[in-house]
Amino acid sequence: MFYVYALYSPDYEKIYIGYTSHLEQRLLSHNELGTKGWTVNYRPWELVYGEQHETKGEAMRREKQLKSARGRDFIWEKIRDER
Question: What is the DSSP letter of 13?
């Protein structure tokens, strides 16, 4: 199983979209364990959206969709609805 997810950094008003096969481990990496990369600079992160996919290819296609302008608008709308 693969997961497409969106993170939100309320302190910096940033979003991050990615995919993984180990969601819990990946979230821990974004928030605590990681020492390099873009997300390290904008901690803490909250999981605001997630989807499960059967294959890596499906997850990669959906991640690409969510990273488009329309996809990012969709994620920001989800964030606004939760606040």
Answer: T
What would the two tokens of residue 17 be? 């979209």
Q: What is the pTM of this model?
A: 0.95
Q: What is the CATH number of domain 2-82?
A: 3.40.1440
Each domain of the chain, given as residue ranges in start order, spans 2-82
Residues with Cβ < 8 Å from 68, sequence gap 6 or more?
none
Tokens encoding 15: 């979003």
Q: CA-to-CA distance for 8 and 47, rounded, in angstroms? A: 6
State pLDDT tens for residues 29-55: 999 999 999 999 999 999 999 999 999
